[in-house]
Amino acid sequence: MSATNALEQYSDEWLVFEGVKTFCEGFLKGLELPPRQTISEWADENRILSSESSAEPGQWQTSRAEYQRGIMDAISDINCDEVTIVASAQVGKTEIINNAVGFFIDKDPCPMLLLQPTEDVAKSWSTDRLAPMLRDTPCLQGKVAEGKDTGNTVLHKSFPGGHITMVGANSPAGLASRPIRIVFMDEVDRYPLSAGKEGDPIKLAMKRATTFWNKKIIKCSTPTISGISKIDASFKNSDMRFYYVPCPHCGEMQRLIWAQVRWDKDDAGNGMPETAAYVCEHCGTLWNDVERWHAIGQGEWRASKPFHGHAGFALWEGYSPWVKLEEIVKAFLDAKDDPEALKTFVNTSLGEVWEDKGERIEEDKLVARREAYETAPVEVVVITAGVDVQEDRLEVDRFGWTAKNQSFGLGKVVLYGDPAAPRVWDELDDLLQTPIKHDLVGEMTISACCVDSGYLTQQVGNFCKERWNRRVWAIKGMPGEGRPIFKKAPGKLRKTNLEFFLVGTDTVKDVIYSRLKIDDPDAPGYCHFNMSYDENHFVQLTAEEAKTSYSKGRKIRFYALRPGRKRNEALDIFGYSLAALEGLKISGLDLRRRWEKMLAKQEYAEKIREAVEANPEVNVEDIPKPKILQKRQRRRVVARFA
Ligand SMILES: [Zn+2]
């Protein structure tokens, strides 16, 4: 080979090399890693908050709630494939998700899935949250085609390079199709245990992302009960980040915690929310709201465990720039005496799981605290009943309810006889129409009654159908977490024209058991029983306990009989009475207002009596009626002439 040839050959190789280089560069460009811009940078540059979905419409500013920066940037961080946000209400969680969705549509398009507890919630998220952002944020305008021919629907939108599908966790179909790179799961603690028959919606959704090396799972929720809460479990698997802020006085960094919130009490011992302040745990100086918000602007996230690709963030209302401490304290003071309200406060304001003490209620304690009343006490404003149908008898219990949600057991009645025959039903009818003696108003009738239709469905259905206008309701108990006590719309019994209401029995038992634990007879929710209830009644009432077990790898909570206990009718009937009260509330009953009216009526009658005593000739029309009674009078007159 000559030198020239060698040179030519070398040149050829060089050219080939150049070609490969160009090709490689192009190839690498195609593989280019996602943009280096973070979600917070993108949002500060581009995001416009829409007037219909934001109290502060206009240009987005991450610094408005500084803690949002760390969360959003974890979502765009290439090293982070899972993000968990356990948060109270009012910390801006929804906008964090919105910004992330907008960022991916604009800068890193790919297939995305957004899961909500139900399809209805998914639809309203699409129309109320996503649509305004797509419309008002300039860089997103026109990316998602609109109109009938585009193939886009409320729950599915495609854009250049990707698409977003919004799904209800109750819909197995939506969870079973194409692979997804980014999965957003909102309010995971409100998901059903199973999407149809397909199993855990969280697992189904995560499965869809397995094929992507750069997949991302974002979960967020307000937590629920300790040991059951899915978001709490997920947070504990993360690096558990908390937000630390510097004290405006001593500069020491600290987490904001509820225990450091202080307020004064008045002379009567009632809390004064307007005096609420935050106490620095290092120097003890009180911070006002402005100082607290300033401190939050200077804060930072600190992990409490090593990072292995899963970032976790915890937030509560104390961090929110939109909530004053006074409002949080007021919510606490309103809730503190009522276990159910307190649970809601702990979950939605503090963003913490509720520790369900789960201890059994001992019947001896309940037996010992029976009281000697025989008539409905003064403060009872409404009476309801519950009926359980057994093979050889009907068991009926009646409860009076007060404005403070206290209950007064008014005596159980057992009607023996074959419920397949009409006689016991006639007796029940009489009993339900028998007025009960009342210490304030003389007599009170039963306002509503729930009859369990689980056994002898047809008989129960027929009996209730004829008495529906007297609010004698057929019901069907339905266990399961998170079901409403009384479902507003009635269902139809199969193959009949008979209507019934669904009653969430586990929710009912949660309420009853949390109330039976209240020891202070003046506290809201306290349950009173008179001497007519025997010991066996309390053995039945305390027969069940909340248990947790695993089903398909997931923890579930349910009620079961305690060892050695066989019967639980007393608990069931109490529950049906509570459900009847709930049915009345849904139909518009306001216990407190009715109580105020009862008092006003009594006061008015007293005034008239005194006036007549002083002057038998007095014209009673001249005595002014209390306002609360006047309105009703006017409405009645209108109705009469209409
Ligand atoms: Zn300090």
Which short descriptors sum up this protein?
642 residues, alpha/beta, 8-stranded mixed beta sheet, 7-stranded mixed beta sheet, 18 helices, 35% helix, globular, disordered C terminus, binds zinc ion
What does this molecule look like?
By secondary structure, this protein is an alpha/beta fold. Among the domains are: 363-591, Nucleotidyltransferase, domain 5; 594-629, no CATH class. 35% of the residues lie in helices and 23% in strands. It is built from 18 helices and 27 strands. The strands form seven sheets. An eight-stranded mixed beta sheet has the order 23-24-22-21-16-17-18-25. It has a seven-stranded mixed beta sheet with strand order 5-6-4-7-8-3-15, sandwiched between helices. A hairpin with a 6-residue loop joins strand 12 (271-279) and strand 13 (286-287). Helix 2 packs across helix 4. The termini are far apart. The model is unreliable at 1-18 and 633-642 (pLDDT under 50). The structure holds zinc ion. Zinc ion (ZN) binds at residues 247, 249-250, 252, 280, 282-283, 285.
Gist of the model:
The chain is of the alpha/beta class and 642 residues long.
Describe the secondary structure blueprint for this structure.
Blueprint: H1 3-30, H2 39-46, E1 48-49, E2 58-59, H3 67-76, E3 82-87, H4 93-107, E4 111-116, H5 119-136, E5 156-159, E6 162-168, E7 182-186, H6 201-207, E8 216-221, H7 230-236, E9 241-246, E10 253-255, E11 261-265, E12 271-279, E13 286-287, H8 289-297, E14 300-303, E15 310-315, H9 325-335, H10 339-348, H11 363-368, E16 380-390, E17 393-402, E18 407-416, H12 423-433, E19 436-438, E20 442-444, E21 446-452, H13 457-466, E22 472-478, E23 491-492, E24 499-504, H14 505-516, E25 527-528, H15 535-541, E26 544-551, E27 554-561, H16 569-586, H17 591-614, H18 627-641
Parallel strand pairs: 3-8, 3-15, 4-6, 4-7, 7-8, 16-21, 18-25, 21-22, 22-24
Antiparallel strand pairs: 1-2, 5-6, 9-10, 9-14, 11-12, 12-13, 16-17, 17-18, 19-20, 23-24, 26-27
